[in-house]
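Researcher: Next sequence.
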Amino acid sequence: MLDPRLFRTELDFVKEQLNRRSFDFNPEYYSELETRRKDIQVRTQELQNARNSSSKAIGIAKAKGEQVQPLLDQVQHLGDELKAAETELSDIQAKMTALMEGIPNLLEESVPNGRSEDDNLEISRWGDIPTFDFEPKDHVDLGAINKGMDFELGAKIASARFVVLNGPLARLQRAIIQLMLDTHSAEHGYSETYVPFLVNADSLRGTGQLPKFEADLFKASDDPALYLIPTAEVPVTNIVRDVIIDAKDLPLKFVCHSPCFRSEAGAYGRDVRGMIRQHQFEKVEIVQIVKPEDSAAAHEELTHHAEAILKKLNLPYRKMLLCAGDTGFSSSKTYDLEVWLPGQGTYREISSCSNFKDFQARRLQARWRNPATSKPELVHTLNGSGLAAGRTLIAVMENYQDAAGRIRIPEALQPYMGGLEVIG
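Model: Next structure:
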């Protein structure tokens, strides 16, 4: 959520920045609500003061033996007016909260203008795209050849966009996850954490999934209202909800492996073949909680940590800076890492690394105590996929295939595969 003071003091600036996202913000509606809120708030305070004065006058009149019924009637009338004013104030505040919760984060100045992924800016490339003396297969065909990837069985057990992995391919995905966890914890200084895979509405509201993106979630129960997590970002970032962190404890760095569940509302017809877009998938998430002055450097560091996994696996990739129209709702700046998939002959996203600044922290009331002021201030939050395990499995399968459909195991993964060097 954005700082309300920006709307009161820099409304034109906010409108200009939101226009970069093509977000339809109506400043006149906001100003109308804000003016009405101020008027009703003043009126409410006046009525409270008047009622308190009249109540005191009743006591004085009683002590003097004077007639108090007119004062009682006045207090009753003021009470009715106050109740009506408080109801109207509550209604206006609810409308303003709903408005504010639907407004995306402001973008970093370095984020390029643009409306879609076609306008994203390529920052760099790493690795050599493999050449084959045969037509490379995609992961679906490779999975069928090696009898380790069954989409029909996934659909039988659940529905479309689910998969069953068997044998060495199931172990390969587990090996990929273990490599990520070991690297981020032992080499990059993240603390491994295990979190619930069901979260409440407050947790999702804190990280920005609710109320705007409820259609993308799987709701598991109504009483209490619990949702399957779309990413470990939600429970991990909520570790600091309503917490004031000591300055000496920052930065906080967490790494978490979890399943992720997404309804993919509005995504039907996209990536229907294979594991690219599933309702359930595995991911290793890296999260940092930092001082505001450190978040830009932390964003670069976190992105490098995700890149390190791709380099260990010798998977060619490119780093993209997302344009204004493609940057996520809560993010102020996002890098996407896109891995090369020979079976598709293109780069596909495998990690998004985002700096949210204080947007999530304001919703979460996640703060640190600044020693310079001794006052609580909002932290900055960041996260990224380090990496999406299923898409990494796809990338390994397609980049390490041979003409017979066998899959070589990258050297970095062999210790986790019991010495197995080839699948097939």
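Model: The chain has a mean pLDDT of 96. The domain at 26-101 is CATH 1.10.287.40 (Helix Hairpins).
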